[in-house]
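Fold sample X.
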Amino acid sequence: MTITTLRRALLLGTIATLPCIAGHAMAATEASAAEDQGIAEGSNILVTATKVNEIAPVTASLQTTQPQAIISRSFIEDSLPATADFNQIALISPSVSNFGGTNGAGLSESKAQIRGFQDAEYNITYDGVPFGDTNDPSHHSNTFFPSNTIETLVVDRGPGNASNLGIATFGGSMNLFSRATREDASAELKGSYGTWNTWLTRAVLQSGAIKQLGGTEIMLSGQHVESDGARSYSPFRSNNIFGKIMIPISSDVKLTLLGTYNENRFNQPDKDGATLSQVALYGKNFSLNNDPNSQTYYGYNHTNKTTDFEIVKLEANIAPGSSFENRAYTYSYDNETLSGNDVTLYATATPAQIAAANVVTLTPGGTAVSGVPGYTKTNKYRVWGDIAKARIQLTDFATVTAGLWIERANTYRQQRDVNLLTQAPNYIEKKITLANYPAGTVQPPANIKFDQDSHTDHAELFTELELRPLPGLTVTPGFKHVDLERQINATYNQTTRFAQNISKDYQADLPFLTANYAVTEQLSAYAQFAKGFLAPPLSVLYVVYPKYSTATPQKSTNYQAGFVYHGSHLSLDADLYYIDFRNKVAVDTTAPASEGTVYINLGRAVYKGVEGQLTYAFDNGLAVFANASRNYAKTHNPGVAHTQIANAPMWTAAGGVLFKQGPVKFSLIDKYTGPQYAAEGEPAAYRIAGYNSAILSARYEIGPVRIGVEVNDLFNSTKITNINQGKTAPYDQYFYQPGRSVMGDVTITF
């Protein structure tokens, strides 16, 4: 089935279903938490309203079919800095680690790992809509959705059911859910100030149910953040506006409109991190300086990012036990960057060597003169999509869910060399070897690295059958077909630097089988078999002769089982997992030179481990919690030693205490990320020791006023969290924890 055919099917299906919605809607029932999430989003949320679950920082649903962590708004609000990004929110979960955030919580981007799977190897969704960059499905943690836009975060450690959407179900999903509208009107004003001259202002307005508009509820939020940042000459500034309208068209039909706009401005090199020599000279917080003759001058290294995200969601009950849902959405990302060419120059260079590197060529083929080399970068895209799902109850023991997801993305990317002193073109790119290129290729301009348009057409067709053969037992087989087509229309393609028009279509058929058995009302057990999928990145088309590359989608086979228990005072869940990853995309080192760079599928890895989390609540408002994971993530290629995957911690652990009683709220939470390697093959020089990330938070309410304080990185740890390899070891860039920070805040609620 082609993508064009799928588009037509979705359009016809939507048109055909709307009369059914209008003519056959039945009496609506109050939505449960699971229904609030949508139709078969892959993370049914059924959390028993017990004392322990009211205070637990993380728990799992009794209906889950895979390992899961649910993090509530109360934990986000009461225990984390207001500037936290979604990766810091998710960090409390078992098997989740992250690095980055070196400028302070939410003041620079971070990257999360789930069981050792890296960003771009798992999905992130917002209200059920998968989002990510269009060259590969990586993410920007503080660019789209700051914490004021998130009500709940659910980490699913697995591909889910067939209806779990995204082009990287490979490693699981991190699911964000938007702030909820409320029936009661309210207003909340928040102000925070703390370390690094960081300040935040936030307003949240709830209209409540407006009777004159049939019970319509409106929620608006605005947030502004400014900080000097933890790192040298690295100020950060952000603005966010969020709005959501819930319109009950009838007792059976609901329309939700959502939109958010975000703007970030900050000073940071495009390739961030500090070399060991820079750290020795200037300290672990070194990033930029105030020397206009240096490539690390803050005035030459700055980025402006703007994003928007909009969803129109229609939900309808069309018969008892049956429903229809359609989500139309669009989002955009625009990154405009100016950066020095090489901010690692101070690694081992003498002043004379630095001067020799700070040269530019101002005319094509001209003589190099003194200057400061750098480049401009643009990465901007707009995505449109639609997700339609129908859930039909066939019998008392069988329900079918079927649907279609289509998406179109248009992207523009460019990079040009400039003299940072004047912004004039810098003609320093090497000539390409025309003999290795197709006939008729001409030399590209020496100041252009690339200038590229690309497009992605993506469709997923899925169905699953939920069977309830015995009381308490739910078995759900499913199937999904994925079709993703990448196209490049480049004036100067990245890496190859000549005009290319290339397209490549990737397809995958994915089976699923999950089961959940409610042993009692408090205890359930689950098991899962599922295939995961990850499309090759756009970079596999950055080759002179794409016809020789045979790379197909990377796939994972997941086997996992576990249980969830919700008692009155104890919440507990644990699981075992085994994941077989094959078809790793790699460069074919045996390809003849005449074929240029060739991408093939080569290699295998195995991910396996055990995970668990628990919270125990006492009667006096005090609770203790802990979770842990032992994660094996190693290569498994014949004849080669099995080594831990890079940036995959061998284990994680978290623990803490929480107290909520009357006007007092208190929490002390510590997450330990175990040892890992920053490079493949377990090289001793790139072994990163384990480190702690502890947060202390306290709140006291006086009528409508809440006074709070958070101490992030309580023990002032400044350990290494990641290392980016350079051309040689002296040019490696190191990332450190930013150290202790304190934020005080005042919140007034009306």
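Fold sample Y, listed below.
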Amino acid sequence: MKTSTLRTFTTVHTWTGLLAGFALFVAFYAGALTMFHEEIDIWAMPHAEEARADSMDRAHALLADIVAKHPAAREQIGVTFPADHPSHEVTAYWMDKDGWKTQTLDSGAPHDAEDHEHGLADFVYELHYDLGIPKVGIYLMGVVSVIYGLALVTGLLIHLPHLLRDLFALRPGHNLKRLWQDAHNVIGILSLPFHIIFAVTGALLCLSLVTLMAFNTLTFGGKLMPAYDRATSAMPATQDKGGTATMLSPAELGARARQAALAAGAADFSPDYMRYVHYGRQGATAEVRGTSTKALGEYGAVALDAIDGRVLNLQLAGARDANHATHSAIFGLHFGTFGGLSLRWLYFLLGLAGAFLFYSGNLLYVETRRKRRHADQPRKVRAMAIATVGICLGTCLGVSVAFLANLLGPLAGAEPNAVVKPTFFAVVAAAIGWTLWRQPARAAVDLLFATAIASAAVGLLDVALHSDRLLRSLAEGRYAVIGTDLVAIAMGVGFAWLGVATRRRGREGDPCSIWAWPRAPEPAR
């Protein structure tokens, strides 16, 4: 490869990495935790098991009440299932003239779906796919995924001629920049297949709606969106035949859908959402969606007659067409749902490694452009160091403190769901301000130790405050709670180790580095 071509690829790789790096750090760090979404959800709601037994019976009455008060909901209304997890809240969704509305069993009144408070696990998931930014965040992450793909391609082209040499090169020593470069290369090369999957599926998941709307308007004359709905739904064409009819309950339809899925060869089927079309009318139908294990695309659906429960259509693992198989596989590949616990741990580690990849890329930018033998560094170097420490380490601290807020909020009379999101963004803003004031070298150590303390406190305080819940879950053979506590403590230890290493670097490393602590002048001899 020509030197000029290599230089061009390196420039493109650097700037695409910088443009997307901060968003990708947040997405990968939160995405690693999202691999244990259900466990975090159970951990975050210690009292959710107390009022669960009759939830689906009450859901049937809730839907009938909503349709009676809001006739527009008759056209289409859905409800979530509690599934196997007591922390799942049964919630109804429907479209009104003002947009999507939602109502829970205990809320008593509908409100805008955008205003619906989500729990801790859902907020971490939102950080992964839209950075916690309403409406536009998901499209931003789609653009970031495309830039991310370009960074992967250019990085591969740069290292392709000496791929094996870079793969096994990890040279510790006094040259810290070389060590960071080696670590960046090794992690990037070893995890490249997974990063390609994440980039492609991330772009498809985030930008599919925008792409479909564009083609629907420009090419297909408004006919694409209905065709897409039919291609990704198990629901056949339906017609309101008028009159009135008694609907089977969500619980009954869920049971019949599961029976049909097992008869079709699915290993299992756990309903988590269903929707009625033409509720309470002759010709009403229902679509029950749920998950099956031991499949690349775990998500499937069964369409039934909402009056007599007759199976109309099904799209499940091993019994779905190409459209549904492709659509479901995208989700399965991105979120690692096609394997068991070992695959989830692998995706968890890949998520943390991915976050390190983008963090180390920023550090390499700083080290490459800083002035050697000069204590005073260029403004762009200092700005990148401040942003890297404030945003990346601030995100780690913000997530840990959000866990603490969920844990301690009820003790102060606050609703956990209402404090998690504001707490996270307040902590990130404070971390950026702290980095501006303390400067990156000292602020990095402060934030790492603060994250270590907060992370360890999450596990230790939960054991202290909810020991009865912990003992009960262990006696019943459920390990989600203790697992979350142990991982929090382990991450606290890991952040403490990073804090010690960073402090040692500041005291003993290159005194002209942006990461060096100011040193007292040596006394004159």
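Sample Y note: The first helix runs from residue 3 to 34.
Also: Residues 1-45+119-232+338-342 form one domain.
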